[in-house]
Amino acid sequence: MVRGGELIDEGLALPAQPTVVSLRRMNQVLDINLGRRTVRVQAGAKLSDIDRRLGAHGLGLPIVGDHRDITAGGFASVGGVSAASHKHGLFIDQIVDLEYVDTDGRIGTCGRTHHTERFQRILGAGGRAGIITALTLDAIEIDKERTWLTTNADRFLDFDSFVEHAYAEILRPGNAELQVGRWVDTAPLKVARPVGTGHVQLGTVRFGQWSSLYPTAPTRGLRARREVGSRARKSLGAIASAAPGKAGMPVRNAAAGAVLFAPKVQTLRDAEYLADTALSSSERGPAYRVGIFAPLSSYTSVFYRLHDLFSGHRERTGCFTVISAMTYGVRSRYLRAESAARGLPAEDHGLITFTCRLRPAALPSELLRDIVSGIEEICRSENALRYEAE
């Protein structure tokens, strides 16, 4: 097991007799090359620290620029996606070269122009093909503190309309700097009777939102409103990010709500913080999670089939409570090359992630195998790729 930053306690235990390689102290920004617009960092450096160092020179990271928990090496090991992936691709698309230690303990280097096969094998491999120790990353010229965005939010009460709208926005994002969609679908709610015994069963909650954030020039009044709202949301996001286990679930859900009802105008720095800290913190807790890169030619079909798979199991077995989905557009050189290497058409993708909250002891191994088999069949028949984010 390779660990870059702090260990997040969610009641998870390490396997018996583990070997843990910690890169926590390898956290330095080694060099910033202003002419090439690149930054050299150690694998344990946190993205938020890297981005703020770049900000002093009028530069920034294009993918997930502000997150307290994610390290450069960790994000490179899983591929790395964000609400800017429709524009800039995956985090690994930004990597120029890297240093690694292989399974025999030998130190090596590889990159876009040398040892390219090894480079492709290590990227997104979760540390199985070698431990990344240092990286050179592309940066872009941007001032995230003074880049203002306005939010266009479209809300939906039926799943079909949400999926069709998400597909249209991913296909033609225009000049959106960030874009993300989220769908939440609960099982029928049960509440205790106010008088007497037993429960009352209420209906389901089904709600979706697609958000696109575009460049804008704010007025003085909007700047003032942004300051008040941003401070409150950042405080909630920081608390949610640190809140562990079941006790932190209400705070994390509140943080997710803060993102769904984000301010109309905010800076790019604020938007990255909200999307990457507050929203990701709401995804913690006991759940079954899966991410699929769906080719745009089969995006809607993959989305419908995944939703039917999980909602069908919930209806038949009661194994899930809340089923939520997030989706992004992804235009990635790496994914195109990966698809071509597998004999698949090289096209752009949409990332679809599902988080299905578990009822205690409600997902036996045979049911899990059935779900995994269903996901594999969807990927095979739709030319989709699994996103191995863990």
Give a written overview of the molecule.
The protein contains eleven helices and 19 strands. The termini are close together. The longest helix has 23 residues, at 220-242. An eight-stranded antiparallel β-sheet has the order 15-10-14-11-17-18-16-19. Strands 3-4-8-6-7 form a five-stranded antiparallel β-sheet, with helices on one face. Strands 1-2 form a two-stranded parallel sheet. The protein has helices at residues 47-55, 72-78, 85-88, 116-122, 159-171, 220-242, 249-260, 268-281, 299-317, 333-341, 365-382, and strands at residues 2-3, 21-22, 29-33, 38-42, 59-60, 95-101, 107-111, 131-138, 140-141, 148-156, 178-186, 190-192, 199-201, 206-215, 265-267, 287-295, 320-330, 349-358, 385-386. Helix 6 (220-242) packs parallel to helix 8 (268-281). The protein has 390 residues and is α+β, with helices and mostly antiparallel strands.
